[in-house]
Amino acid sequence: MAREDDLDRRRRELEAALSARRPETADEGKSAKSGGLVGAGNALKLSSEFIAGIVVGAGVGWMIDRLAGTSPFGLVIFLLLGFCAGVLNALRATGQIAEFGSRSSGKDGDGDDRN
Amino acid sequence: MASDPIHQFNISKLVPIEIGGLDFSFTNSSAFMVATVVAAGAFLFVSTASRGLVPSRMQSIAEMTYEFVANMLRDAAGSQGMKFFPFVFSLFVFVLVANLLGMFPYFFTITSHIIVTFALAILVIGTVIVYGFWKHGLGFLNLFVPSGVPGVLLPLVIAIEIISFLSRPISLSVRLFANMLAGHITLKVFAGFVTSLSAFGVVGIGGAILPLGMTVALTGLEFLVAFLQAYVFAVLTCMYLNDAIHPGH
User: Fold this and answer.
1) Quick check: ipTM above 0.90?
2) Over the stretch B9-53, which tens digit does the pLDDT of each residue have?
3) Are B227 and B183 in contact (CB under 8 A)?
4) Nearest chain A Cα distance for residue B170, angstroms
5) Residue B210 lies in a domain
6) What are the CA-CA distances from residue B231 to residues B113, B191, B228, B237 (Å)?
7) What is the span of the domain harbouring residue B27?
8) Residue B1 included in any domain
9) Could A112 and B247 be called an inter-chain contact, meaning their C-beta atoms sit closer than 8 Å?
């Protein structure tokens, strides 16, 4: 047991020593990457997020219409909600809005528990 | 055929099988799925067979893959997420090897069919939903309730969050499929320019150098995309699994 703890400690120290040397090389890699290729990848990622939201919204609305016989209204409402979800997805993908299900902190996390 | 950029995605039946009116044929797609699994499995078996303390090159590749996926999963989902390691590792290696196999000329790219990537994405989301409900019960639904939202807006926000959640498998599968499809079509189109231009004599052959250079560059780019998309697929899987392990953390 003591041997394992010792090993763990030594590994942590090694990790710390290694990470002290790493930043210079890591930064170089990041700046070299910011070319057109990553931009194209981002564009594809964001558009797929946005379109997926719309497609799912339309699909859910269409299913509700079919099952409940409320034709055009389900499609209209859920398509609009789908647009919202698409925008939400895209903003999440760029990191401008908090991730799925994450609470910002403990103190305002109690507001929703009553509902 | 040489100039048809879509032909490479045709499904052909190798062994026609029909059970109860359903088509279970063994197609070229199935053949390449088997090839992918066999190639990945054989590589891992062979490379780790010697189990050297100082790894050989092959063993080193296998170990780096292991550590790469393990770190990815631990960063995204914490050490609790490590119970999903076999799942994430298999997915990553399957997608990566399938993408790379597709880079061989005349080979079939299974990830360029949306039904394959969609099945993989459904597997991921299905795991997230089943594990989330099994582990947290109805508490898993907290995932759809963001904090600090006024009560009036709550139904609207919850509907949007649910649609956003349901859109994940679609964006996950569309991204992989679209990247592979678009890359392979572009490659084929530029390669087709080379043959059709060189039919115009000396001037044509001179002009064909441009698309040839483009094809070479695109091939390099496609190798990068093959790796990048496998990585993105695995990273997003880890993030979604994190939601199942800690909903509303």
Assistant:
1) no
2) 888 888 888 888 888 888 999 999 999 999 999 999 998 888 878
3) no
4) 6
5) yes
6) 18, 27, 5, 10
7) 7-245
8) no
9) no
